[in-house]
């Protein structure tokens, strides 16, 4: 007879984070539809096609310096050259340019036809006879060439890029008025648990406030998703079935939290088997071991663990890349990992990849260091508010002594300040 309580699988049977990501991402592709939106409505959206430039930048050859436009032949005699006219930014020189003369020119002014170089005014001596140049002059010097920054018709942003403060002003500078982006992903969320109450409701003995829906909703909004919030669902198969059906009909992705850990979620599992193909995974990460992923009749499904730290971590490490894939955000990546010196000892057992919450700082020697936020329990959510990075401790690693090198992963905008 099977034991009354399901057993924890041996550590070696746990699924690694990379394998879990691979398993998830290999199944999905973007289903979002492309629409054209004005630039002013494009913040946070993902480009659906390559964006090309309607113009070249700079639009014309222009001067990089305040100084003098010259033709090299006029310099051969080494005589001072009279100034035959002026070219300003926004006010080009349009007159005749006689032989053996130069033109006064300002930064950004179109270089007059025939200009072979611009000499900066610091290398010019002005006298009654004209201008004498005090340094050798090279062909092309101090001329910004048309199209040198952006070619007309050239790709300025690839498809799959999130439009933010670095991208949108670039498009504005090119005179782009609208851009093809993917429609937002609709995500339904709910929390499961008889003990959960929404904020604003007094707590009865044994009840706690629902943390996860708050965090998940916020992160989804930051990822540009449209959120359908189904609230708190009690631990009751009928109510859960109804919620899953409703969520599946309303969304492209359904995210629940709670009820996926060993020993208490058997009916959730049975019910999800009835409603779709869901894998219940035991991940070799800490926190966040239990995680469910699969397909409902219409939508994809992620079941986050109930513990708030585990829920936030699995969302960040697994659901975030899934959403990137589903929204066509092919350019998505986490900030680069860095090496830092552990400024405090870090407790760890070998067996799982550990994402401890850390505070990265520059030490007195100017080197990157990190200290722990303290207690790393999966219910200590305040650790996120103190931290600015994950300290990523390799699966087989044990405790870390002060001074050892560790890998840190700085938080991105979902968790960062
Ligand atoms: P479960 O995965 O349902 O067994 O939940 C594991 C732990 O997380 C329990 O202590 C739950 O009370 C807690 N928990 C589950 N869901 C939430 C939530 N939405 N907010 C805060 N704590 C939760
Ligand atoms: Mg529960």
TrEMBL record:
Q: Name one GO biological process term.
A: Mo-molybdopterin cofactor biosynthetic process
Indicate the segments forming the MoaB/Mog domain, all copies: 188-325
Q: Cite the entry's keywords alphabetically.
A: Magnesium, Metal-binding, Molybdenum, Molybdenum cofactor biosynthesis, Transferase
Q: Which reaction does it catalyse?
A: adenylyl-molybdopterin + molybdate = Mo-molybdopterin + AMP + H(+)
Per the record, the pathway is: Cofactor biosynthesis; molybdopterin biosynthesis
Q: Which domain of life is it from?
A: Bacteria
Q: What is this protein called?
A: Molybdopterin molybdenumtransferase
């Amino acid at each position: 007879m099977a034991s009354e309580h399901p057993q924890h699988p041996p550590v070696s049977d746990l699924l690694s984070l990379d394998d879990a990501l691979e398993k998830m991402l290999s199944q999905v592709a973007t289903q979002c539809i492309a629409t054209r939106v004005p630039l002013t409505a494009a913040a946070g959206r993902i480009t659906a096609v390559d964006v090309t430039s309607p113009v070249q930048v700079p639009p014309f050859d222009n001067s990089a310096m305040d100084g003098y436009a010259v033709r090299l032949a006029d310099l051969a005699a080494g005589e001072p050259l009279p100034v035959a006219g002026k070219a300003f930014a926004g006010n080009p020189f349009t007159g005749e340019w006689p032989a053996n003369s130069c033109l006064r020119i300002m930064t950004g002014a179109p270089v007059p036809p025939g200009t072979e170089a611009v000499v900066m005014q610091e290398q010019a001596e002005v006298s009654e006879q004209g201008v004498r140049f005090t340094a050798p002059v090279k062909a092309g010097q101090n001329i910004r060439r048309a199209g040198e920054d952006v070619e007309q018709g050239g790709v300025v942003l690839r498809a799959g890029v999130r439009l933010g403060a670095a991208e949108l002003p670039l498009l504005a500078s090119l005179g782009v008025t609208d851009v093809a982006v993917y429609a937002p992903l609709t995500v339904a969320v709910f929390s499961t648990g008889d003990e959960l109450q929404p904020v604003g409701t007094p707590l009865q003995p044994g009840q706690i406030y629902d943390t996860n829906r708050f965090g998940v909703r916020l992160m989804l909004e930051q990822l540009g998703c449209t959120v359908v919030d189904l609230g708190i669902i009690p631990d009751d198969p009928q109510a859960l079935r109804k919620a899953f059906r409703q969520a599946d009909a309303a969304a492209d992705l359904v995210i629940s939290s709670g009820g996926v850990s060993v020993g208490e979620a058997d009916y959730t599992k049975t019910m999800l088997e009835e409603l779709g193909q869901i894998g219940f995974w035991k991940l070799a990460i800490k926190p966040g071991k239990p995680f469910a992923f699969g397909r409902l009749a219409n939508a994809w499904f992620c079941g986050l663990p109930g513990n708030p730290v585990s829920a936030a971590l699995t969302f960040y490490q697994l659901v975030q890349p899934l959403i990137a894939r589903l929204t066509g955000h092919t350019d998505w990546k986490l900030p680069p990992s860095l090496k830092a010196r552990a400024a405090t000892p870090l407790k760890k057992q070998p067996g799982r990849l550990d994402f401890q919450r850390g505070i990265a700082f520059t030490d007195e020697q100017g080197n990157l260091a990190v200290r722990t936020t303290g207690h790393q329990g999966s219910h200590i959510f305040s650790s996120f508010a103190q931290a600015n990075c994950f300290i990523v401790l390799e699966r087989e690693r044990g405790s870390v002594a002060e001074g050892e090198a560790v890998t840190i992963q700085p938080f991105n905008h979902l968790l960062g300040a």
